[in-house]
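(2Fe-2S)-binding protein: C-alpha cells wanted.
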Amino acid sequence: MEVTLTVNGKQHHISIETDEMLLTTLRKLGYFSVRCGCDTTNCGLCTIWIDGKTVLSCAYPTFRATNHEITTLEGVEVEASKLAACLASEGADQCGYCTTGMMMSALMLKAHDVHPTDDEIKEYLIGNLCRCTGYESQLRGIKKYLEGDLE
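Answer:
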C-alpha cells in the first residue's frame, strides 16, 4: 500500500504493509526518537503528536495518518533541547530510553498548561514508564522547564 505522510512538515511517500503501525513506519523513515518498549500501549516510549494531540504510535495504523500532521521529537528540536537540559540537570537522564516519549508528553503539557501543579504533571505523564529513575528527578526537571528556569 502506498501512502503519503507529513512528518515534521516534510512529506514522505512510502510503501507500507496494510497492517503496519506508525511506529514501524516512522523508524523506517529515520525518526529514531520514536522508540518501541512494549507494543501494547503501556510504556509511552512511542509517543508522538498527530494534529497536536499525543498518540501512541505503536497502536496507530499508518494508513490512518495520511492527511494528518505528524510530529516527532525531531520536529520540536529547539524546545526538546531545553527540556533535555532541565532533565539532565536534575539527574533524570539515566539510561534515557524512556526520555523521548516522556518529553513529547511534557512538551504537550506546556502547550496546554504552563503552570501545572505537581499532581497535574504526574497525571499528564501517566503511561510514560521509566525503569531507572523513580520519577522524582523527571518531575523536578519538567517543573524547571515549565517555570523557564533554564541554566
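The domain at 2-74 is CATH 3.10.20.30 (Ubiquitin-like (UB roll)). The chain has five helices and five strands.

Cheers.
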